[in-house]
Amino acid sequence: MAALTAADLFQALQAALSVLEAQEEALNAINVFPVPDGDTGTNMLLTLRSTLTEAERQVPQRENASVAQLLEALGRGALMGARGNSGVILSQIVRGLARGVGPARELDARALVQGLEEATRLAYQVITQPREGTILTVVREAAEAARAALERGETDVVAVLGEAARAARESVERTPQLLPVLAEAGVVDAGGQGLWLVLEAMRRHLTGEPLETLAPPGRASLQREWVTTTQELHQTGQSRYGYCTEFLVEGQGLDSTAIRARMEELGDSVLVVGDERLLRVHLHTDDPGAAISHGTRVGELLEVKVDNIQRQADRFLDQHEAAAEVEAPVVAVAQGRGLAAVLRSMGALVVPGGPTMNPSAGDLLDAIQRCPGDEVIVLPNDKNIVAAAHQAAELTGKRVAVVPTRSVPQGIAALLAYSPERSLEENVRLMEEAAAAVRTIEVTRAVRDTRAGGLTVREGDAIAIVDGELKVAAAGPEEALQKAVEGLGVQEGLLTVYYGAEATAERAEALAESLRRRFPQLEVEVVAGGQPHYPYIASLE
Fold it and tell me: Tens digit of pLDDT for each residue in 51-78?
């Protein structure tokens, strides 16, 4: 085909839209950069949908329109409807195509190449610190491949588009080599993959190939270890993303350079695109109000959107944890994101529950049924859940053994002793031995006055429960834990402190340092447990 008409181009983009609709969740699932918030597929879909809607409104008679008229409308629609980092960059690619093609009646091979090159220039221009291994790399390498095909003498516009799509796919597959976070998560770049899907869908539409067989490269789920590590960073406050803030501002003589400079003072991931009459602004900031207020000072706001990225990222990671492949036929009960993450990282299927929130026999039965294989081991990790675990075991056709662990540390020790190479009976024996070798200290607050084991406890006191028995009452949880460790009288070993929702990483690290000084014979580790009600749970092995 020598050239595309406006109608051809619009229909090809409609095909791309249908593919993004089908692949939206798959793209969301691998979105880890720049923020793991799981919205790249949605943002690219909404951006392209808005782009086509505006073009349809402005150019209703596409059979008689020029490609230049259509692209001008597409460019405005992309600017008006851009969403998120990936959407804004996609809008720049569309606007770059429009600029590069110029006043052409039809889109031939040379115009397509010029459009892709201008799209690359604009996309890189909008990013203050461009990173390779992203959608930027993919559009650049697609444009380079298209240019090479043209210089080899290729004049068929669909063939040139095909070369761009081929190069885009290969570029996507290389993104983990260029961006370490992708390699760690075990995925390709979501934005780059979305762009490849758009180019390949357009090519397939124009050649008459089916869209349904379009298979994205790379895996569609995250590495379990990366999810666990990132969760821990979130819980310890080492990762903070603030608010994704976007607005569309209209005015006269808008200064994109000055606005970008102000936004960079307020946050990061800053994108400012458009012209002196209409600008779309995007940034991640802790103070969205300041960014929006600046927008009102320079022009009239047409649209404002603010999303809590931290919440989005937490939900995204929770979904991946819940969907993680169960590697061991073991059901474990735990309360607290960090504790659950530790058990999941070891291959267990985790059922939410613990003190004050005991899962039912039905909850445990459902988990048993979801476990792989015909033999399943259940770790109740609380004395009050052991009975429900036995009841669930009687309700299934699978062979189920209950290892009566009474705390999560016991459950972790038991799970470490599991091996798929052993029989059910041998695993149960070794897991019970491993659990019995662990001492557990649970620190909480007394809910009423009491006397037990020679201790007088007042409501609100910090108390330490050692292997199920009340042993210490103190003014604060840190003091209670230290006294409990002292009471065990151990000479050496590993003390792991899981800090809960009521503690902080700073307090936990300070406690660990105090423990190391006071008990130099012990190796002390700190883990974000996230458990409610218990500021600290500790295991001694």
Answer: 999 888 888 777 888 888 898 899 888 8
Q: At what angle do helices 40-58 and 6-29 cross, to 10 degrees?
A: 160
Q: How far apart, in Å, do the first and last CA atoms of the chain sit?
A: 72
Q: Other CB atoms closer than 10 Å to residue 291's CB: what's the count? A: 26
Neighbouring C-beta atoms of residue 480, cutoff 10 Å = 26
Q: How far apart are CA 183 and CA 195, in angstroms?
A: 20
11 token code pair: 């229909």
For 51, the token pair is: 């782009």
C-alpha R_g of the chain: 29
239-297 per-position pLDDT tens digit? 345 788 989 999 999 998 899 899 888 988 888 888 888 888 988 888 999 999 999 99
Please provide residue 273's backbone torsions phi and psi, each rounded to the nearest 5 degrees: -130, 155
Rounded Cα distance, 481 and 536, in Å:
8
Please, what's the b/e burial string for 133-167 (b: 16 or more CB within 10 A of its CB; e: otherwise)? bbbbbbbbbbbbbbbebbeeebeebbbbbbbbbbb
Q: Which residues contact 384 (CB under 8 A, 6 or more apart)?
A: 355, 358
CA distances from 365 to 8, 348, 378, 397, 402 (A): 55, 15, 10, 10, 12
Domains and CATH numbers, the chain: 3-222 (1.25.40.340), 243-310 (3.30.70), 325-436 (3.40.50.10170), 439-540 (3.30.1180.10)
Distance CA 223, CA 177 (A): 16
> For strand 450-452 and strand 455-457, is the pairing parallel, antiparallel, or unpaired?
antiparallel
**Concatenated DSSP letters of 258-269:** HHHHHHHHHEEE
In three-state secondary structure terms, 210 is coil
Checking 482-486 for CB contacts under 8 A at 24+ apart, the result is 482/511, 482/514, 482/515, 482/518, 484/441, 484/443, 484/538, 485/441, 485/515, 485/519, 485/522, 485/538, 485/540, 486/518, 486/519
What number is the average pLDDT over the span 444-448? 86
Q: Shortest CA distance to 96 belongs to which of 80, 81, 66, 74?
A: 74
Question: Sorting pLDDT into bands at 50, 70 and 90, what band is 314?
Answer: low
